[in-house]
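dumping this here so i dont lose it
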């Protein structure tokens, strides 16, 4: 991986002629995304993200922190102890430049010997699971990082709306895989990263997976476009 997503973040932070990211999935055409969106303030965030940041408590792990906007709010506005992690070294450099000195390059599956009161996975937090088959592995890993009484706050979307309807009003979904399993590709400054799997989970499927792995799951709120925030505990 060329870490183009992180490169865009670091370019924006260091004023190094940032450009829009181009994102494409296995079911959608290329789309431009302004990297500035990743640097948004609390007031600019969607309702789901705001709700998650207000529900966060205690020692917090921010998984896939990106540019660090969520962690910055928790650190600077709520004075909470937050550990931002991301697999992108460029993104973590940007986080550190923004004042998140303890931000570190880390895969959540590799964290050992640390526990948290709140684990955040936002901006389609189920994406890092990759596929439905990997969901249990991630949920068990996240559960192992929770303190007693701890919580996982995670968001995603039900993307069934993106598929065509057949004559009977049902959805036509190609292939045998779960419809939320997409392949994602990122391009930036005329470079393209290797495609990677990215998972959107509808709420019922997340709830079933959570229950199967010994977690309770509750719906906190729903957004304006088939998206939702859930709490696992």
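and the seq i came up w/
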């Amino acid at each position: 991986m060329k870490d183009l997503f992180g490169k865009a973040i670091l370019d924006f932070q260091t004023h190094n002629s940032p450009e829009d990211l181009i994102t494409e999935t296995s079911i959608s055409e290329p789309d431009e995304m302004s990297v500035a969106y990743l640097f948004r303030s609390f007031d600019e965030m969607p309702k789901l993200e705001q709700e998650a940041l207000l529900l966060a408590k205690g020692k917090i792990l921010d998984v896939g922190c990106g540019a660090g906007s969520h962690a910055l709010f928790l650190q600077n506005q709520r004075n909470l102890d937050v550990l931002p992690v991301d697999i992108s070294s460029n993104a973590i450099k940007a986080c550190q430049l923004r004042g998140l000195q303890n931000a570190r390059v880390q895969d959540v599956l590799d964290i050992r010997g640390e526990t948290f009161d709140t684990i955040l996975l936002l901006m389609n937090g189920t994406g890092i699971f990759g596929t439905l088959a990997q969901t249990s592995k991630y949920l068990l890993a996240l559960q192992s990082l929770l303190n007693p009484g701890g919580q996982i706050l995670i968001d995603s979307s039900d993307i069934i709306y993106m598929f065509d309807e057949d004559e009977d009003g049902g959805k036509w979904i190609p292939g045998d895989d779960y419809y939320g399993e997409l392949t994602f590709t990122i391009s930036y400054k005329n470079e393209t990263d290797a495609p990677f799997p990215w998972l959107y989970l509808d709420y019922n499927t997340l709830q079933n997976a959570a229950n199967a792995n010994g977690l309770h799951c509750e719906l906190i709120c729903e957004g304006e476009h088939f998206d939702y925030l859930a709490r696992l505990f």
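The chain has a mean pLDDT of 95.
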